[in-house]
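Listing 4. Sequential folding, example run.
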Amino acid sequence: MKNYIFLVALIPSIVFAHEPYVAPLAFFTKNTQIPVISGYAEVPFASEYALKDVVFHITQPDQSQTTVTPNTQLKSATVFDLALKLDGTYYISSKVSYPLQYALYNKEWKIFYDTTEGKEKSIAERDYVIPGDFKKTPQLKNVTREWSIETYLSKNKLTEVKEKIDFPLQVKFSSHPNNIKAGHPVSLAVSKNNKLLTKAEIVIKEKGQSEQNTKTVLTDLKGRANLTFPAAGQYLLEITETQNPKAEPVNQYYKIISLSVN
């Protein structure tokens, strides 16, 4: 709930531009410990606001699990130290969610905010609606948007990754997430509640790049998509179901995975 209060105070400046993520300082290391950084970012990997009251789940190379509740006082990011006692791959994940309202406008459902901010722009320039856009009380629908934020880091060697956290969306890589090569295709299989998800949207965001420079790929009828990263570097993958603006809104699930491409 505190995450929601924080977001409402910043709407619409944060909701439409900032998204949560988590990433280690290095994705492959020899260190005995490493900082892990998370937050809300408009530009990929450039955290601007800290996550509040968040718990991270850690799956260690031997498949044992532990949790970390960061005790950071920073306003711009949430940071914690992760001990790396074992060689192999660590899987880090958490959830962030907040409630949304949708309003039916011209037979399409749009995000609704009870605010006067943005009234100077025409509705064609906004991807949300406000009370001033309606001549009478709008038809509203309440839903929840939930993000699962995830990343992988490996100490000295790569080991098998098993996701044990129960997220609605699941993603399987054809190669190890810490061994993806620039220019080499990698296949993703996307499922929801263990059923293959067709036409899922996969948005590829490169570190430091603007929203206009993203690339979107859809999964096929078998829930698969082939991705090729053009250059080495850090990327965010944002994965969700395709939204139909004419259908009544339901709870939305997003998965944001941070990767380092070699």
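-- end of first protein; second protein begins --
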Amino acid sequence: MAKKKKYTLDEVNALRIAYGDPLQKREIVSALFIPFLIAAVFTFSLFYYWWLSVIAGGIAMFYAYAKILPQDTRRSYEITAFRERNKFVNNITQMLTNEERTVLDCLKVVTERAQGEFKDDLLMLQASIMEANNKEKQTAFQVISDKYKGDVIFDLFIEQLATATIEGRFSIDTLKDIKSYHNEVKKRQDDFLQKKKKEAFHFKFIIGIGLVLIMAITFSFGWEQFIGVYARSLIGWITSSLYLVLITGYFLSFRKHYIDDDIMEVKV
């Protein structure tokens, strides 16, 4: 599925359905309410105006709907799709070590083990190459190759399978080499995702510490004095606004880096 800058809720749901269950109402509510709550609490703790908190929460909710939910869903879709392709590459290679098996025989077996959208792709591939001429077989393999063209190593693997199907010859050593490359990319992706999880934890920790410090300062001054002397004063407005701008900038920078999925574009 091609990448897009914007997704409708139906398109986000389609990404979920490709490898799992559709979005549930409670998931959507949670994905929108949590950003609203965080932004509202932060804003209220600085300015103590409920209407300003609602505005800030509304902006955060809209951003979550327009950006966070689609980005996270697409990222999960791409990770799962890659896992399916990696499993396919490993299973096919293992089965083709038996010289008595044909590519079509192997396809039938591994398709039963596949899941979601990729399983549908394999079923379509099988149907297209059965009793087809060489040109039709080449076209069938090209369809699946084009769909996952971002995964260059997988593309090479499909090319080898196409050659084996059409010409009846292939090098098992070449397939094993391609499999090793794909497994290496999977390992890099696993390390990459683990690193992102740690970065997400650190971000949440820093934001939490910031809120705790605001509360500590409030209680040290006293609630009424904090509101009267600082929160609703000109200096308070300027200082708190700058702080919110910095926090927002930090969050946007974090999100941009967090959803940066260049490593998902699998290259040799």
